[in-house]
Design brief:
Radius of gyration of chain B: 24 Å
Largest sheet of chain B: 2 strands, antiparallel
Structural class of chain A: mainly alpha
Structural class of chain B: mainly alpha
Largest interface: A-B, 68 and 59 residues
Number of strands of chain B: 2
Order of helices and strands of chain B: EHHHHHHHHEHHH
Strand content of chain A: under 5%
Number of domains of chain B: 2
Distance between the termini of chain A: 180 Å
Shape of chain A: rod-shaped
Helix content of chain B: 55-70%
Oligomer: heterodimer
CATH topology of the largest domain in chain B: Fumarate Reductase Cytochrome B subunit
Number of helices of chain A: 31
CATH superfamily of the largest domain in chain B: Transmembrane di-heme cytochromes, Chain C
CATH class of the largest domain in chain B: Mainly Alpha
Distance between the termini of chain B: 89 Å
Strand order of the largest sheet of chain A: 1-2
Shape of chain B: globular
Chain lengths: 567, 285
């Protein structure tokens, strides 16, 4: 006699049957039992599940667990049949394939070691892994989160109560699978972000695009993934909106993102700059600034953490000085260089004047019309000065100071006195020397050497030639062409008349052709001075000769007389 | 005449320059020295010494101010000289002993000949030797050039009202060339003749001794000793003075007023270039 599962029923040990009979009956019974065993391999039909189904197919009872939870004993057979594990499915799974622990599931079932429903589900889930391996391929986050008490098991996603959902169904809407559990967030901000992210996910993106356990830069990937998907804006106290969208491509294509900058720092990740963990860890700390400008200026500090040398230069520049005065529109790092899409600032060279022109558009327009600007913008001429050649880059000096003014001729001369450079354009390099030889230039050069901080009203190059709007000296609109020169002179010499401009030597060295009067007067004195002084020298020399001779003769005459006297 | 020694054969003192002439010379020393010290560095501002001297004098603007001030002293001294020359020629009717003549040319040649031992005796010269005449006329010529070109440089806009603009840089060239010539002449010719050869103190004391007269002005000494001093009738002298005084006063006033105009005639440039306020912040639209 065996029970339903074939275990021999216990009998009283007090029987008087001889041992060989008992043994033979037992052997017979064992053979009979073995033949009766419901092995799937042997069973063609009916299903080996029949005993299970028989009891659990229609069972209204529940098993109370130690936790107090009730484990329903009923199995919805229709659901099971229609599921991926149903007997009609391609790969049917029997009850004992999953409920395979012989000790637990042989009837009468032993008490289940699970004390809660969750434990019970985990237990069943472990059975899944005997067929479905490896699970970490599609459930990485959860399996790694060992300390999570709410760790989901296989059944949490693939269905409870035997309604096993096939992987294809789940992967058809993976986000919904995750959302079946992840419906609420402790932090409403996190919830908002995830709602927007979920709505903006691309065709190949799932929750696991971010929540992966194999990130290259864990934080960086999270930053990039989120901010690529976000297209909403953050509203600041001022009412301005800061777009949250950041295209990672702009960073990878930038000087920071690619290895085109050969240093040990590139490429940078998001957190290389946004490195303050308290502030930039997700969820991000609330902003401390009220408006977009404040946010831009705040980000200057991020650049300066690495670019300390440039920061030191910038500290001496006009823009930082203006910001310290409260003129917050003055350029900060990002205004010129951009924030994420930082490119080499001088490639192509026109980029420089474009950059400055963002804020200094009027000056940039004047420059574009000048001889320098036209050559830069029209011909990509590498020789003409762009803004930074005259003004400097980070430590830009205020151009309205006396110092800038008296030093400015050197600035012009740095190109215009360069013979190799000027030879290309057939421009005289005598301009600087002839300027310094003249009254204006002499004075300015002395001020520059001695008291550069003092104002002087003597003209410098740009007083006559113009500042940003410099035209070629042979252009009909040039301030220094002969027809316009008197007006230019009158800027400083209001009483000047038409004769006055000729008092300027027009950067010509005096010669018989140019400024002949000056040339011949110089020549006159070049001859007269040596002749006169030479004549004096001759007379003086002859006199010295005569007197020396006289004195020698009188001494010679005196000596013998003295000797005679002694004798 | 500071010393009443004329005609006294025993006296060692022969009057040469009266007090007025000596004051005039002192003013010339003062103004010429200051003009040279402030002027030459302006001619060579790109040399280390030129730039250094300008720096020591407190910068180019102060150097120019000192130069202009010394120029006024020189011009006033020149006016005084003209009045003094006029007095000596018109009132006292002295001989125009400073005028150069053929004898001066001969003296130059003979001096050379004597110095090189070709002639036994040095040439005998009168009240003013050829060397002194060269100095005097060089100062006259130089001062005229310097004052004229200085006016042009001081008042370039007024000058170009009537004259071509090229005169301004030409005046600058002449002013510098003439200055160099003057300074070189002083440090060679003047220094040698009155300080090195013999220290001629007459410009400070007013007189020469007999030995000096014999050495340098034998003809004048001979003239003094051969004929008694020519004295003018006091009545005639007073009459001439009465005539000369108003002319001299008017001339002096006219000249001084001219000097005043010279130095205040024009304001060449506006004092400072007015700052044009340009709004540099113009964000691109």
């Amino acid at each position: 006699m065996t029970d339903l599962h074939g275990f021999p029923l216990r009998k009283s040990a007090a029987s008087a049957v001889p041992a060989w009979r008992v043994l033979s009956v037992a052997v017979f019974c064992l053979i009979a039992f073995w033949l009766m065993l419901p092995t799937p391999t042997l069973a063609q039909s009916p299903s080996p599940d029949s005993p299970c189904v028989g009891c659990h197919g229609d069972n209204e009872h529940s098993l109370p667990l130690p936790s107090g939870e009730l484990l329903p004993l009923d199995v919805d057979l229709d659901t099971l049949l229609a599921s991926a594990h149903g007997s009609d499915a391609a790969a049917p799974v029997n009850c004992v394939d999953c409920h395979r622990n012989d000790t637990n599931y042989r009837y009468p079932h032993l008490p289940n070691p699970a004390t809660t429903l969750e434990e019970y589900r985990t237990q069943v889930g472990e059975s899944c892994q005997s067929c479905h391996t490896p699970l970490d391929q599609h459930n990485p986050g959860h399996l790694n989160a060992v300390d999570n008490p709410n760790l989901p098991g296989c059944v949490d996603c693939h269905g409870q109560g035997h309604s096993v959902t096939p992987a294809e169904t789940l992967s058809a809407d993976p986000v919904a699978t995750c959302q079946s559990c992840h419906q609420t967030y402790d932090d409403p901000k996190v919830g908002e972000v995830h709602a927007e992210l979920a709505a903006n996910l691309g065709p190949d993106q799932t929750c696991q695009t971010c929540h992966t356990d194999k990130p290259v830069y864990p934080a960086d990937m999270s930053c990039r993934n989120c901010h690529l998907l976000l297209d909403s804006s953050l509203e600041l106290a001022s009412g301005e909106e800061v777009p949250l969208h950041v295209d990672p491509a702009t960073i990878t294509d930038s000087v920071h993102g690619s290895s085109m900058v050969e240093n040990s720092y590139s490429p940078l990740s998001c957190t290389s700059c946004h490195r303050d963990e308290e502030r930039y860890a997700f969820p991000h700390a609330p902003l401390t600034v009220d408006d977009a400008r404040g946010l831009t200026l705040e980000m200057d500090d991020l650049c300066q953490e690495c670019h300390t040398d440039i920061a030191a230069l910038e500290h001496d520049g006009v823009h930082e000085a203006a910001r310290e005065r409260g003129e917050l529109a003055a350029a900060s790092c990002a205004d010129c260089h951009g924030s994420h899409n930082i490119q080499p600032p001088n490639e192509p060279r026109e980029r420089i004047s474009d950059t400055c022109g963002q804020c200094h558009s009027t000056i940039n327009e004047q420059y574009a019309g000048s001889v320098h600007g036209a050559a830069l913008l029209g011909e990509q001429n590498p020789d003409v000065p762009v803004c930074t050649d005259c003004h400097g880059v980070h430590n830009i000096a205020p151009p309205q100071t006396a110092q800038f003014r008296v030093e400015s001729p050197n600035l012009c001369a740095s190109c215009h006195a360069d013979e190799t450079l000027m030879a290309k354009y057939d421009i005289s390099t005598a301009v600087f020397d002839t300027y310094v030889a003249d009254f204006h230039g002499t004075t300015v050069a002395l001020f520059e050497k001695q008291t550069p901080w003092q104002e002087t009203n003597k003209a410098v190059c740009y007083d006559c030639h113009g500042v940003h709007n410099i035209l070629p000296a042979n252009d009909e609109h040039s301030q220094v062409i002969k027809d316009n020169l008197v007006v230019t002179c009158q800027q400083c010499h209001p009483d000047a008349n038409a004769n006055f401009p000729a008092s300027w030597t027009s950067h010509f060295e005096p010669s018989p052709e140019h400024n002949p009067l000056v040339y011949y007067i110089n020549l006159f004195y070049q001859i007269l001075i040596p002749v006169v002084v030479g004549g004096f020298a001759l007379l003086i020399g002859s006199d010295v000769y005569r007197r020396t001779g006289d004195s020698l003769r009188s001494r010679r005459a005196a000596k013998p007389r003295k000797e005679e006297g002694e004798e | 005449m500071s010393h009443k020694t004329t005609g006294n054969h025993k006296s060692e003192r022969y009057p040469r320059f009266d007090t007025g002439q000596r004051i005039e010379h002192a003013l010339l020393i003062l103004s010429f020295t200051i003009l040279s010290i402030t002027g030459l560095p302006q001619k060579y501002p790109d040399t280390g010494w030129g730039e250094g001297m300008i720096r020591l004098m407190g910068g180019i603007e102060l150097t120019r101010f000192i130069h202009h001030t010394a120029a006024i002293v020189l011009i006033v001294g020149s006016i005084y000289h003209l009045v003094g020359v006029g007095y000596r020629l018109v009132v006292k009717r002295v001989q125009m002993s400073m005028l150069p003549g053929w004898k001066d040319v001969v003296d130059v040649v003979q001096s050379l000949g004597y110095n090189f031992g070709l002639i036994k005796e040095p040439p005998k010269m009168g009240r003013y030797t050829f060397g002194e005449k060269v100095e005097y006329w060089a100062v006259v010529w130089g001062t005229v050039i310097m004052i004229l070109t200085g006016f042009v440089l001081w008042n370039p806009i007024a000058t170009t009202r009537m004259l071509p603009g090229e005169l301004i840089p030409a005046a600058k060239a002449a002013h510098g060339g003439e200055a160099l010539l003057a300074v070189l002449s002083i440090v060679t010719w003047h220094m040698y003749n009155v300080h090195v050869k013999n220290f001629n103190k007459s410009m400070f004391s007013g007189w020469l001794n007999r030995h000096e007269m014999e050495e340098e002005h034998p003809l004048e000494l001979a003239a003094i000793e051969s004929s008694p001093a020519k004295t003018v009738d006091p009545e005639v002298l007073r009459r001439r003075q009465r005539l000369y005084l108003p002319v001299a006063v008017i001339f002096s006033l006219v000249m001084l007023v001219s000097v005043y105009f010279f130095v205040t005639f024009e304001e060449t440039a506006i004092t400072t270039v007015p700052r044009q306020t340009v709004e540099v912040f113009s964000p691109a639209q």
